[in-house]
Design goal:
The protein contains two helices and no strands. The chain is mostly helical and 64 residues long. The longest helix is centred in the first third of the chain and has 29 residues, at 3-31.
């Protein structure tokens, strides 16, 4: 395994962990009475992951 592959896996792990934590925080906000803020946090997290996914796919296509 190369250093680049290891670094990419580490970054993806950090991003995934952050997304899970944001989803849990959003659910906690929703259950504590702040429905709008919880939904906003979950939607922003989903949008940012989608943008990151699009960016990495384009970068992969350009490398190949």
């Amino acid at each position: 395994m190369t250093k680049t592959t290891t670094a990419k896996k580490a970054v993806m792990g950090i991003i995934t962990t952050g997304a899970l934590m944001a989803a849990i925080a959003g659910a906690v906000l929703m259950f504590n009475g702040s429905l709008a803020m919880g939904l906003l946090l979950i939607n922003v997290t989903g949008l940012s992951l989608s943008i990151y996914n699009i960016y990495t796919r384009r970068a992969t296509k350009e490398d190949n």
